[in-house]
Amino acid sequence: MNWLRIVRAEMHKLTSTKMPLAFLTVFVVIGAVTAVAVAYGTDMDGSKTFISTALDQQSLMAFATNSVVIAALFGTIAVAREYGHGTVVLTFLTTPRRSQAVLAQLAAIFAAGCALGLIGAGVSAGSVAIGLTATDYGFMVSAGDLVRVLAASALAGGAGAVLGGGIGTLVRNTGGAVTGTILLLIILPPLAVQMASETASWVPNTLANVMSGIDPSVGVGAAIAAILAWAIVPATVALGAVLRRDVV
Amino acid sequence: MQQQSEYPLVIDRVTKSYRGTTVVDDLSFAARPGRVTGFLGPNGAGKSTTMKVLLGLASATQGRATIGGKSYAELSDPTGIVGASVEADAFHPGRSGRNHLRILADATGTPVERVDEVLEFVELSHAANRHAGAYSLGMKQRLGLAAALLRNPPVLVLDEPGNGLDPQGIRMLRNLLRARAAEGNTVFVSSHLLGEVEQLADDVVVINEGRLVTQGSLAALRQSASLVRTASPDVLHKALVAAGGGVDALDPDTLVVRGLSLDRIGEEAFHTGVVLHELSRHTDSLEDRFFAWTESTERSN
């Protein structure tokens, strides 16, 4: 099917530069810091209560909040650079129906974001497990909760990547697009919570934690729907812009 | 006998405006199969915009651009019909040349072996695994050409493909485009390298400030002038201008006349009593003609 060919080509685009390697390196660094913190870190009182329960450990390995931001930056940079370098011209020459081209690009970005989120959560969980070997505590998180942490991180990564891809498509300039993504995910949510406290349950961090099972603010279904909405809204606006504007 | 492709390119009264600025103004011309059509104009004349309208990358404010009677987006297999290179450096600098083409091959269902074939053809195999960011402009042009040729399409639309090419590259490009046209394909090439177009094109389309200046067979356009040598150039100059001719002084006793036939020039000389020492057809270089065309449109604005 033509559309799947285009998705495959978009996946090939994402894996044919060193950018994924750079992001995986970030995960390794975060994982290393986590392992050291688990192994040698203490609470203010010198105890290690921060790893003393299954929920504490699950919180430590819940990577979904990081996944949203990291995958969003990945999606932003990947898409904005395609516009910035003009390679999107070839995309639209190959697929003149731009809605198909953009949806294929977003599908590939979503898959890549899910993969990043899953790997990030895997590295995080592994790091906690490694760090725990240097403590008196064992690995207490159940298999079910571990799967939930991994799935939440994968979905959060996918949503973040699509959000970033949408912003990258809209802004096109890599620096501007990254700034836009940081504004949307890191700067604006705390401001919104300060202005209207009831929004706290619906910002990406909270939603990611709900999906990971460490925050009961809203239901899981509502959290999934809301985090997908965070992705779909900018992606839809971006699609509308691509359909309207010239490729220059 | 050559088999003509079914894909003439037709620009039909196309106008393109950006925020009130008209970049292409009621432009009409055609590029025929079996011919190399050179698309000429000064920088900012609207050549690239016209090509983008043709390829569906920009929408026309008015008018229609078609390939074989259909807009680019209406073609059943666009990259199978049209091979295009419109941005010389449209490459991700961190992606290898081979991967750039493999992505295109993936998207179009082209066998991956074809990637190596076209890389070989454009003599870029040695650098296929290097990042495109490290390519020279000429190498980027070769990669763009490889992308356009990937599916061996019957139509080529190339924007300034000779820029940055070394002499061997220029010759490869010239031979390729001539051969494609000889096979009946449609070849449409914009360029500001007039000497190159002179050796390459069968037809030319010249635009300036978004408007058509002239179009037609290059040979006919170059020979559309007459050379007149006389001892009384001033008298004859006035008479020929009054008769509707365009007259330029080549040297003190020689005029180049456009827009009047040899017979008419002879009659005007006879009526004004001017003795002619020479009256012959004159073939301008494309460069001379190009400046004459573009300067005359600028004067008329």
Write the layout of secondary structure elements.
The complex is a heterodimer of chains A (248) and B (301).
Chain A: H1 2-15, H2 19-40, H3 54-61, H4 64-84, H5 88-94, H6 98-132, H7 143-171, H8 174-195, H9 204-212, H10 220-244
Helix pairs in contact in A: 1-6, 2-6, 3-6, 4-6, 4-7, 4-8, 4-9, 6-7, 6-10, 7-8, 7-9, 7-10, 9-10
Chain B: E1 9-18, E2 21-31, E3 36-40, H1 47-54, E4 62-67, H2 78-81, E5 82-85, H3 97-108, H4 113-121, H5 137-149, E6 155-159, H6 167-182, E7 186-190, H7 194-200, E8 203-208, E9 211-217, H8 218-222, E10 225-230, H9 233-242, E11 246-251, E12 254-258, H10 262-272, E13 276-282, H11 286-300
Parallel strand pairs in B: 3-7, 3-8, 5-6, 6-7
Antiparallel strand pairs in B: 1-2, 1-4, 8-9, 10-12, 10-13, 11-12
Give structural notes.
The complex is a heterodimer of chains A (248) and B (301). Chain A is mainly alpha-helical and 248 residues long. Chain A has one domain. Chain A has helices spanning 2-15, 19-40, 54-61, 64-84, 88-94, 98-132, 143-171, 174-195, 204-212, 220-244. In chain A, helix 1 (2-15) packs across helix 6 and helix 9 (204-212) crosses helix 10 (220-244). The two termini of chain A are 29 Å apart. The mean pLDDT of chain A is 95. Chain B is 37% helix and 28% strand. In chain B, helix 4 (113-121) crosses helix 5. Chain B is elongated, with a radius of gyration of 22 Å. Chain B has helices at residues 47-54, 78-81, 97-108, 113-121, 137-149, 167-182, 194-200, 218-222, 233-242, 262-272, 286-300; strands spanning 9-18, 21-31, 36-40, 62-67, 82-85, 155-159, 186-190, 203-208, 211-217, 225-230, 246-251, 254-258, 276-282. Chain B has eleven helices and 13 strands. In chain B, the strands form three sheets. A six-stranded mixed sheet of chain B has the order 5-6-7-3-8-9, with helices on both faces. A four-stranded antiparallel sheet of chain B has the order 11-12-10-13, covered by helices on one side. Chain B has a three-stranded antiparallel sheet with strand order 2-1-4, covered by helices on one side. Chain B has two domains: 9-213, 3-Layer(aba) Sandwich (Rossmann fold); 224-282, Alpha-Beta Plaits, CATH 3.30.70.100. In chain B, a hairpin with a 2-residue loop joins strand 1 (9-18) and strand 2 (21-31). Classes of the chains: A mainly alpha (248), B alpha/beta (301). The A-B interface holds A 2, 5-6, 8-9, 12-13, 16-19, 81-82, 85-87, 89-97, 246-248 and B 52, 55-59, 72-73, 75, 78-79, 82, 84, 86-87, 89-96, 99-100, 102-104, 106-109, 147.
